[in-house]
Amino acid sequence: MKKVLLFIASAVIVCSCNFMENKMGGSSEAQRERDSLQRVIDEKDMELNDIMGSINEVQEGIRRINEAQGRVTIADGSRESASSKEIIRENMEFIQEAMQQNREVIAQLKEKLRNSTFNADKLQKTIENLQQQVEDQAQRIQELEAALAEKDEQLAQQTEAIASLNQDVISLTEDNKSKAKQVEAQDKELNSAWFVFGTKSELKEQKILDSGDVLKNGNFNKDYFTKIDIRYDKEIKLYSKSAKLLTTHPAGSYNLVKDKQDQYELHITNPAQFWSVSKYLVVQVR
Fold first, then answer.
1. DSSP character at residue 223
2. Is the pLDDT reported for residue 3 higher than 50?
3. What does the alpha-carbon distance between residue 255 and residue 269 come to, in Å, rounded to a whole number?
4. 203 near 209, Cβ under 8 Å?
5. Is the dihedral of CA 36, 40, 46, 47 positive or negative?
6. Nearest-angstrom CA–CA distance, 115 and 111
7. What integer pLDDT is reported at residue 243 of this predicted model?
8. How far is the C-alpha of 39 from the C-alpha of 45, rounded, in Å?
9. Residues contacting residue 118 through CB under 8 Å, at least 6 positions apart
10. Alpha-carbon span 247 to 197, nearest angstrom
11. Do 102 and 134 touch, CB atoms closer than 8 A?
């Protein structure tokens, strides 16, 4: 009986062990399948997150390019300051760099999608839309660059024209100054006269009086005369109590007047008439 019970107990133990082994084996296999599926899901998530991150990067690049483009203003006919030109240059450099970066990210996106296990028509369409936006932006940037280049050319032409006008103004100003000096000199010469007073012997000595004739020839000493402006110099002090005009001057155009010292002064009352016969005045005094 003991042998029978021992046999039955042994059989139960063996069956129990086999049951436990079968149960444990089945559980491990299911766990492996779950783990494998989870890895696939995680890889898909990482792949999708990577693609979406690249898409967001391109969209952000497009947004920043639009902002930079808005900061590049063109005002026809205006002349920007140095700081404004620097801002435009910096924004255009940023736009070019951002455009290149967007193209590179889109190329990477296409490569990722080709190698992806997704059957993602919507993702493909999204990438195509992004690429179209980038190309449209590129076209607008080309038009903006062309407009800036045209404006630069206009400003260069304006600068050249202004420089030419300034040079013309300078030349005209110098020419006017030269002409004004000529006119002034001519005017001064036209209104110049020369006078001299002296004793008979002094006048003879300077060859102003020769054999009773005054200014008979041109070899008299012109340096002995004093130059005056007939428009302003209308009174000539003679410092003598005796005075006689030797040159011809119309009567009524002057007066010989004595001062407080009883010395003569010549007062020219009508300069145009007085100097109409001769621009030289010779007065003999004692």
1. G
2. no
3. 7
4. yes
5. positive
6. 6
7. 96
8. 10
9. 44, 47, 48
10. 11
11. yes
Q: Residue 146 carries which DSSP code?
A: H
Helix, strand, coil content of the chain in percent (nearest 5): 65, 15, 20
Look at the pTM and tell me if it is higher than 0.90: no
Largest CA distance in the chain: 197
Cα separation, 34 vs 271, whole angstroms: 129
Alpha carbon distance 186, 166 (integer Å): 29
Write the CA distances from 170 to 57, 160, 179, 213, integer angstroms: 59, 15, 14, 54
Q: Supply 176's token pair.
A: 């006017």
Retrieve residue 18's tokens.
């086999």
Q: Could you please report the per-residue DSSP string of 22-45?
A: HHHHHHHHHHHHHHHHHHHHHHHH
pLDDT (tens digit per residue) in 248-264: 999 999 999 999 999 99
Alpha carbon distances (Å) from 245 to 3, 24, 150, 154: 186, 156, 80, 74
Name all domains of the chain by residue range, CATH numbers in brackets: 30-161 (1.20.58), 188-285 (no CATH)
